[in-house]
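for the recovery benchmark. tokens below, seq after
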């Protein structure tokens, strides 16, 4: 006798499949929408332009779904809002067809009051069961304003680009990249599914992504960079820098001030360091070249080897341990004890604490 137990009724299986298929198509539509937004061609003629020439703009508020946002404070440009509208899969539509779809399915608003620009685009019947995703539109905004402007931006599926602004900038996207250039002030941005590029900016930078890499160059001030799924590329940074990733490598060069950085799943390569430094990795090797040490150096490597280069003429207190240390410390100015797994002593009379804890080999050199 064959006995079947804990079986799922055929009807339940059909309902489960149907539910999963609906979920799949919704995710597919969202992905297409995000791809469309990322591929937006700003050089095309805007569907509509609103002049801001007579308004002293201080704040910009933008909210759109599945499309890109750009705000620029570049001089020489007339203050205005440009609206770009494209069909699904980036299909070109006539103005008549765009207007028909906007009137039927979307609420598009651009207004100016009390020195504020408000631009928004959303579906009239969000989540409606009869929604035909093939007729959806991508509604992006490109805005030119004076340099001293604060922004408040949100899109669920497109990229955000900011440049030449001085003020408090707050922006987020659920499915696109962030591009920041020549900003000063308080800069706070996040994305759940894209990369981040920030350059030539400063004062107070706080950028976060859950699914992409971060590239930062020529920035200064208080800088915080976080990614859960990508690599870090840092170059020419000066200030107090916190940069961490949970799933990628770290590469940095020409850093001044203080750098605290770490990864749970990649290698670390730091060159031309002239700063206080704390670096760690749980899943890779580490290469560190310091031309000048700041107030401290702390390296923690639990999954690989370490190659460390220190300045020859600077006073340091060394406290190092590794599976094997490959330097006999026969340089002049070293005082202390060392063996194949530990080093404890001082260089040039002591000074800056240098602590290293490595599970693999440690190679030490001086320049």
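predicted aa per position
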């Amino acid at each position: 006798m064959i006995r079947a137990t804990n079986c799922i009724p055929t009807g339940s299986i059909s309902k489960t499949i149907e539910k999963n298929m609906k979920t799949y198509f919704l995710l597919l539509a969202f992905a297409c929408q995000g791809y469309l937004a990322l591929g937006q061609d700003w050089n095309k003629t805007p569907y509509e332009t609103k002049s801001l020439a007579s308004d002293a703009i201080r704040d910009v508020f933008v909210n759109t779904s599945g499309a890109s946002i750009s705000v620029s404070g570049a001089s020489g440009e007339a203050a205005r809002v440009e609206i770009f509208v494209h069909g699904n899969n980036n299909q070109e539509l006539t103005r008549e067809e765009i207007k028909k779809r906007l009137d039927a399915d979307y609420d598009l608003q651009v207004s100016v009051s009390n020195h504020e620009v408000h631009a928004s685009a959303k579906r009239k019947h969000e989540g409606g069961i009869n929604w035909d995703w093939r007729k959806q539109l991508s509604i992006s905004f490109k805005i030119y304003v004076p340099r001293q402007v604060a922004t408040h931006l949100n899109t669920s599926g497109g990229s955000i680009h900011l440049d030449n602004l001085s003020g408090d900038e707050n922006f987020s996207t659920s499915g696109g990249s962030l591009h920041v250039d020549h900003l000063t002030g308080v800069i706070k941005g996040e994305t759940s599914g894209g990369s981040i590029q920030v350059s030539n900016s400063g004062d107070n930078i706080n950028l976060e992504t859950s699914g992409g890499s971060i590239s930062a160059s020529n920035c200064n001030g208080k800088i915080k960079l976080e990614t859960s799924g990508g690599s870090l590329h840092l170059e020419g940074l000066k200030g107090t820098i916190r940069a961490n990733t949970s799933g990628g490598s770290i590469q940095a060069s020409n850093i001044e001030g203080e750098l605290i950085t770490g990864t749970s799943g990649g290698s670390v390569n730091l060159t031309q360091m002239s700063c206080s430094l704390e670096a760690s990795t749980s899943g890779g090797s580490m290469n560190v070249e310091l031309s000048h040490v700041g107030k401290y150096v702390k390296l923690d490597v639990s999954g690989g080897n370490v190659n460390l280069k220190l300045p020859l003429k600077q006073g340091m207190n060394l406290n190092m341990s590794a599976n094997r240390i490959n330097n006999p410390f026969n340089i002049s100015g070293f005082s202390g004890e060392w063996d194949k797994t530990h080093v404890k002593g001082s260089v040039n009379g002591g000074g800056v604490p240098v602590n290293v804890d490595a599970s693999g080999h440690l190679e030490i050199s001086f320049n």
